[in-house]
């Protein structure tokens, strides 16, 4: 059984964060493990508050997992403060962990900030160089680079800039550009590839970023290439979004259907 680790914050509403990661990894056929970096009070209407887990307990969780249940791949999500980012980067390097997916979680679906501004530099300089792939959406990529993205050409330019931080590949998710189709741009360090899917008219997209990044990590844990992991994850999240409205969970931005294949 291949194992995947998520290092992220807990979502009490179950739609994003650690909870979404575990669901996504399980649905994609790997054994999911977790390191919780923060605990949020959260539902489909927004984030009511959060508290960071003390660094010593984040470190203890990582040590416990790696020394007994070494992951075949891992993804990072909510790392809200600079010290947490630095610690996670240090542990990845110390244990020579491979197949690293970094989802630079910055803002919740309802607009609540989940990353302190001063943590961005640590993410760019310490964590990105350890990543096999980073998976920002357009607002996150704009926040990181300070550049506005309004076209496919802009997406290419930003992918190249993000790659300059040492990351091996970039998946820039294009859903925020609008249009009838949602096109994600993948830069493998040499070439560009596009992944296009039909846009689903739904407000229930809470946790899509967490879910997709975790599906990518699951594919990599199973031995797929980064490209094939992205391809499989794109198909998985499309089905999860298509099934979201049928769940009828919450009054705000509801979760996607992580287990659509079981309906």
UniProtKB/TrEMBL annotation:
Its EC number is 2.7.1.49. It comes from Seleniivibrio woodruffii. It holds the Pfam family Phos_pyr_kin. The keyword DNA repair does not apply. GO terms for molecular function: ATP binding; hydroxymethylpyrimidine kinase activity; phosphomethylpyrimidine kinase activity. Transmembrane segments: none annotated. NCBIfam families: HMP-P_kinase. The keyword Nucleotide-binding applies. It comes from the Bacteria. Pathway: Cofactor biosynthesis; thiamine diphosphate biosynthesis. One of its GO terms (biological process) is thiamine biosynthetic process. Residues 11-257 form the Pyridoxamine kinase/Phosphomethylpyrimidine kinase domain. It is an enzyme of class 2 (transferase). InterPro entries: HMP/HMP-P_kinase_dom (IPR004399), PM/HMP-P_kinase-1 (IPR013749), Ribokinase-like (IPR029056). GO terms for cellular component: cytosol. This is hydroxymethylpyrimidine kinase. Keywords: ATP-binding, Kinase, Nucleotide-binding, Transferase.
């Amino acid at each position: 059984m291949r194992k995947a680790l998520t290092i992220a914050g807990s979502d009490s509403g179950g739609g994003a964060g650690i909870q979404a990661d575990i669901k996504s990894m399980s649905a994609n056929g790997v054994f999911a493990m977790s390191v919780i970096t923060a605990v949020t009070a959260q539902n489909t209407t927004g984030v009511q508050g959060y508290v960071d887990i003390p660094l010593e307990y984040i470190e203890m969780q990582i040590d416990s997992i790696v020394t007994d249940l070494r992951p075949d791949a891992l993804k990072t999500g909510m790392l809200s403060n600079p010290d947490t980012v630095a610690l996670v980067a240090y542990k990845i390097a110390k244990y020579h962990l491979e197949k690293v997916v970094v989802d630079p979680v910055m803002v919740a679906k309802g607009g609540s900030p989940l990353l302190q501004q001063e943590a961005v530099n640590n993410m760019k300089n310490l964590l990105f160089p350890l990543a096999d792939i980073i998976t920002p959406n357009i607002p996150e990529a704009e926040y990181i680079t300070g550049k506005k993205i309004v076209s496919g050409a802009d997406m290419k330019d930003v992918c190249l800039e993000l790659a300059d931080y040492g990351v091996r590949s970039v998946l820039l998710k294009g859903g925020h550009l609008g249009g009838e189709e949602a096109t994600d741009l993948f830069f493998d360090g040499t070439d560009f590839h596009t992944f296009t899917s039909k846009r689903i008219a739904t407000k229930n997209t809470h946790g899509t970023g967490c879910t997709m990044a975790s599906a990518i990590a699951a594919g990599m844990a199973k031995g797929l290439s980064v490209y094939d992991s992205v391809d499989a994850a794109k198909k998985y999240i499309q089905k999860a979004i298509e099934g979201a409205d049928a769940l009828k969970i919450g009054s705000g931005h509801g979760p996607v259907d992580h287990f659509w294949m079981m309906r």
